Amino acid sequence: MAFGKKKKAASAEEAMYMETQWQLIVRKFKKHKLAMVGLIILIIFYTLGIFSEFFATQDIAKRSTAAISMPPTAIHFVDEEGHFSLQPFVYGKKQEEDPVTWRKYYVDDTSVKHKLRFFYKGDPYKLLGFIPGDIHFFGTPEPDVFFPFGTDSSGRDLYSRVLSALRISLSTGLVGVFFTFILGCLFGGISGFYGGKVDTVIQRIIEFLMSMPSIPLWMALAAAFPTNWSSLKTYFAITIILSLIGWTSLARVVRGKLLELRNEDFVTAARVSGATDRYIILKHLLPSFSSYLIVNITLAIPTMILSETSLSFLGIGLTPPIVSLGVLLQDAQSINTISMYPWLMIPGFFVVVSVLAFNFVGDGLRDAADPYK
Question: From 86, 196, 240, 272, which residue has the greatest number of CB atoms within 10 Å?
Answer without folding.
Answer: 240
